[in-house]
Amino acid sequence: MKTLFRLLLAVTVLLLGYGFCQAMYIAPREATMGDVQRIFYYHLPSAWVAFLLFFVNFLASAWYIVRRTDGADALALASAEVGVSFCTIVLITGPIWARPIWGIWWTWDARLTSTLVLWLIYVSYLMLRHYAAGGQVPVLAAALGIFGFLDVPIVYMAIRWFRTQHPQPVIGGGEGSGLDHRMWMAVLWNLLAFSLLAVLFVWTRYNQALEERALEEAHAQAALAEEELR
Amino acid sequence: MNTAGNNGYLYAAYVVVWAIHVFYFFTLASRARRLKREARELESSSRL
């Protein structure tokens, strides 16, 4: 398992480097926005990876509700935590891109607002996991994970359902949408690199969550044994 | 649109992305160290 992890780590580092080169040097300069448009090659893959991780959280939460396995709970926690980190990137790179192009950092349009709500839902999920105590916390968190995921399709569809400041979708956005082939390659390489990075992060966090649980149980057993000795 | 003057925003965005990934990496590394230390402490206290 360690060898596979190291191999994946090496491939991810190489892909991240290649994705960076694709984004900064190989993808053509966008005619209207200029080089600042290259933020897109990190912004879009980060959003897709965040959505994917929240979907994993949804599945793991549903699995936990049905089967109550430690593995499902650990996977739900790991995917939510890594998902929040990618969603944070989306929420920061978006305004940095918006400022020179729209002239404003933020606007309360449907896409931006629903993304902020999504981030807040999963931050509250993590706060619940971190600060609440008691045996029911994983169940409550799983319920939040299942209902919280409802916001993901709203974020995705917001630019189709509402008139927004945010650009129209690059996939299936109708006439005039789409990307140059070389721009697509930059998106896809970075999507692959970020997905592998997310897998490594989730893998590590998942093992840590299981280890934390084992340690908690060992502490509880040690305390019980100490009590019996007294 | 002064596109060349906007490059600062591009670099800022890329720096933020890497800073967040590096920060999360160090969070995982520090948690791993804490867990290892706790496991060691538990093991030594159970020996006593």
Can you give a write-up of this model?
The complex is a heterodimer of chains A (230) and B (48). The relative contact order of chain A is 0.16. The longest helix of chain A has 49 residues, at 181-229. The model of chain A has no long low-confidence stretch (mean pLDDT 93). Chain A has helices at 2-26, 40-67, 70-102, 110-131, 137-148, 151-161, 181-229. Chain A is built from 7 helices and no strands. Chain A is mainly alpha-helical and 230 residues long. In chain A, helix 4 (110-131) runs antiparallel to helix 6. By secondary structure, chain B is mainly alpha-helical. Chain B has one domain (4-47). Chain B has one helix at 7-47. Chain B is rod-shaped, with a radius of gyration of 21 Å.
Uncertain ranges of chain B: none
Count of individual beta strands of chain B: 0
Q: Percent helix among the residues of chain B? A: over 70%
Along the chain, the helix and strand elements of chain A come as HHHHHHH
Compute the separation of the termini of chain A in Å: 43 Å
Estimate the global geometry of chain A from the Cα principal axes.
globular
Largest sheet of chain A: none
Query: What does the radius of gyration of chain A come to?
Result: 21 Å
Beta-strand portion of chain B reads: under 5%
What distance separates the N and C termini of chain B?
Answer: 72 Å
Itemize the secondary structure elements and their pairings:
The complex is a heterodimer of chains A (230) and B (48).
Chain A: H1 2-26, H2 40-67, H3 70-102, H4 110-131, H5 137-148, H6 151-161, H7 181-229
Chain B: H1 7-47
Key phrases:
heterodimer, A: 230 residues, B: 48 residues
Brief write-up:
The complex is a heterodimer of chains A (230) and B (48). By secondary structure, chain A is an all-alpha fold.
